[in-house]
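re: the backbone from monday

yeah here it is again, tokenized this time
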């Protein structure tokens, strides 16, 4: 079993935990489905919950997830698509309110960041996006919230978008090793990265060289510095300061994603 020790501000994991091909590969043979989250949370330091993107979850589910995971474990959530897949983003207020009243806060200190993912067809419109960012609450009932924006259209690769994200202290999701536009500029007190390059040709999803490279990028991002081999679009870098990092291994050859995440955890922890 790999160590779950980590750099204090770098959390690494996968998207979701229910996936049949992981059984007998990541999950031991005979492990019941009801214990898969418990097992995953002992080997990873975070998980991005995908089900919240497709529909509302029960408050009892959030309570259960909180109870089944270690004290220092953190979840990130994909926000509902009904908030982002719309022509006029300023009209998303009711959906956003329903999301945060659905039980999300029952994750308490285990609530990491919220990922607001947009479709590849959504183009950058500064007025449209600023109206949306104004709707995102900085805190609710005394609990501070962290928001990340995942954009998938090249029109966002502009200094104006980076400046807007910095104004509202919202992270721009860093897309790695995939087909989506890469915007690695640091715009918030934390960094949110999703890497998508695992393949079936590598037992651990990535080559040793690629794993070393992502571990080093995570360490650099945690210092508040954008690595030079990632795409930056701002007119000036962010002020250097320690940042929390959430890094998720998703897509790619999904069967290998847990192995890649565990390898990255070992590397950033210096083991």
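seq for it, each position gets an aa:
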């Amino acid at each position: 079993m790999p160590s779950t020790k980590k750099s204090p501000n770098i959390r690494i994991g996968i998207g979701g935990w229910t996936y049949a091909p992981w059984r007998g590969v990541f999950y031991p043979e005979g492990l019941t489905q009801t214990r898969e989250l418990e097992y995953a949370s002992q080997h990873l330091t975070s998980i991005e919950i995908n089900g919240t993107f497709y529909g509302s979850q029960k408050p009892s589910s959030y309570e259960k997830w909180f109870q089944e995971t270690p004290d220092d474990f953190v979840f990130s959530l994909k926000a509902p698509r009904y908030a982002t897949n719309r022509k006029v983003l300023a009209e998303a207020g009711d959906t956003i309110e329903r999301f945060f009243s659905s039980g999300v806060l029952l994750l308490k200190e285990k609530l990491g960041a919220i990922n607001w993912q947009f479709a590849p067809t959504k183009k950058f419109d500064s007025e449209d996006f600023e109206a949306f960012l104004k709707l995102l609450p900085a805190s609710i009932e005394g609990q501070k919230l962290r928001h990340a924006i995942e954009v998938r259209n090249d029109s966002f690769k502009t200094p104006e978008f980076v400046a807007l994200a910095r104004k509202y202290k919202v992270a721009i999701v860093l897309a790695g090793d995939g087909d989506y536009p890469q915007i690695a500029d640091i715009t918030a007190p934390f960094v949110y990265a999703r890497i998508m390059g695992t393949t079936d040709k590598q037992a651990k999803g990535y080559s040793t060289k690629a794993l070393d490279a992502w571990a080093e990028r995570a360490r650099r991002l945690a210092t508040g510095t954008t690595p030079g081999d990632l795409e930056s679009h701002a007119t000036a870098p962010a002020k250097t300061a320690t940042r929390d990092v959430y890094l998720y291994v998703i897509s790619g050859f999904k069967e290998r994603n847990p192995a890649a995440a565990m390898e990255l955890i070992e590397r950033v922890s210096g083991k």
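Residues 1-8 have pLDDT under 50 and may be disordered. The first strand starts at residue 10 and ends at 15.
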